[in-house]
Amino acid sequence: MNIEEKHNFINSVLILVESGTKHLTIEKAFIKNKVASVFVETVKRSSWPLGNDLDLDSVLSRWIMLDATRAELALLILKTLAEEAFFYTDGLPDSRRKTLKTALSAFLIPIDQLGEMVIRNAVSELEGKPSNDVLKVVLDNGGGAGGVGWLRRVEMCVDAYLNGSMEGIEVSYFIGVCGLKCLATVFDWVAPKAIASTNVVNRITQLLIHDYQPIRQAAADCALVLFSRHFQEVSERMDVIWNIVLTKVGILSLDIAWEFAVHRVREESGYNIVKRLAQSISSLGEIQIPVKKEDEIPEGFSEYLNLLIKVAGMRSMVVSGTTMSVWSDLLKLEYLKNLPSVKNVLPGLLEWLPTRFMKEEEMLKDPEISHFASIDFDNEDEIQAHCLIQRQRALNIVGQIVGSM
């Protein structure tokens, strides 16, 4: 394909995105996904960001402001491109994948942060084994989304629609869900400093009690990805998690979200949200809290333990079971297990642990436990295997508690 043919092809794809779909509330999801995929394939085979055959930033910026239908497609394209670059292996040459990873990493963060990284030669903070040539092009072109970075631009788009859209509440929900799914895709690798510079973490916890169930589900997915992330530096963990989520106010927000979800557990997909939240809350204890330094304990640690007790008390084998490894991990750390906040929750923990020693047939006499077990397990053998593992973990935790007395 010569230069003119390539130019004409790209223009055809741009026209397809701009006018080839119906309104977002009536167009079928697979059509939107297919249109987004066609555009992403075009990006992959273009020279972006090093060449001038496609200005991705200008195109997405125009679409996200044009109307809700195009805004949703812009978000879907960004999400799909990130998935293709970071998670899929489809025969894309390694050199091109490296370029896309670097460009997207730089594309998402504010231009001042990108410039600072380049100046102090800290490009290792970006994913994709960064190429200085790629970073320089993105920097020279003014960064992503007019310099604020596309992470912030996606957050602004979600907020703008969910705070009230002239196109109606149904449109707001479509954009909200798509934007949150986009955020969930990038949270595992976008520069932590970029996350900390936005209000996106607080916004996600707020949306965990949104009236619209798919918004809550998407927010719970975001929380799980973010809370499960293994940050390279303790300072990154502090900026993104400790200073925002593991504060007294942050844990209170999660506590409210937990109660909200539990009270709606029988609604459609309500139990899935409860399980996501349980995994997210447990991930904070498994991954984010332990730093093995006695002088570093999050402000909301005591409140977190009380919330963990609530999760453990959920009458679901799977949900309560997510907390087992957390208790075991925390009680292994000398500087944590002797804290008054830990000793204060031990009575509640000891009250709950004996239920883990019950035979599965006894547990299943409880209608609520039986109901959730019928969702989580396919047969009795799976239930027995799960209960066996939980009994062993409970026994280990009891041993840890006795050993600390």
Describe the model.
With 405 residues, the protein is an all-alpha fold. 69% of the residues lie in helices and 0% in strands. It is built from 23 helices and no strands. Helix 1 packs antiparallel against helix 2 and helix 12 packs parallel to helix 15. The longest helix has 25 residues. It is globular, with a radius of gyration of 24 Å.
What level of helicity do the residues show?
Answer: 55-70%
Oligomer: single chain
Tertiary shape: globular
Q: Which series of helices and strands comes N to C?
A: HHHHHHHHHHHHHHHHHHHHHHH
Our measurement of the CA-to-CA distance between the termini, rounded to an integer number of angstroms, reads: 75 Å
Extended strand count: 0
Question: What is the averaged pLDDT score?
Answer: 89
How many distinct helices?
Answer: 23
Low-confidence stretches: none
Main beta sheet, described? none
The computed structural class is: mainly alpha
The fraction of residues assigned to DSSP E strands is under 5%
Rounded to the nearest angstrom, the radius of gyration is 24 Å
Q: In summary, what is this structure?
A:
The chain has 405 residues and is an all-alpha fold. The protein contains 23 helices and no strands.
Highlighted features:
405 residues, globular, 69% helix, mainly alpha
Topology readout:
Elements: H1 3-19, H2 29-44, H3 56-66, H4 68-86, H5 94-108, H6 111-119, H7 132-140, H8 150-162, H9 169-186, H10 192-196, H11 200-207, H12 213-227, H13 234-242, H14 248-262, H15 270-288, H16 301-312, H17 317-321, H18 324-332, H19 334-337, H20 340-352, H21 360-363, H22 367-376, H23 380-404
Helix pairs in contact: 1-2, 2-4, 3-4, 4-9, 5-7, 6-7, 8-9, 9-12, 11-12, 12-15, 14-15, 14-16, 15-16, 15-18, 16-20, 18-23
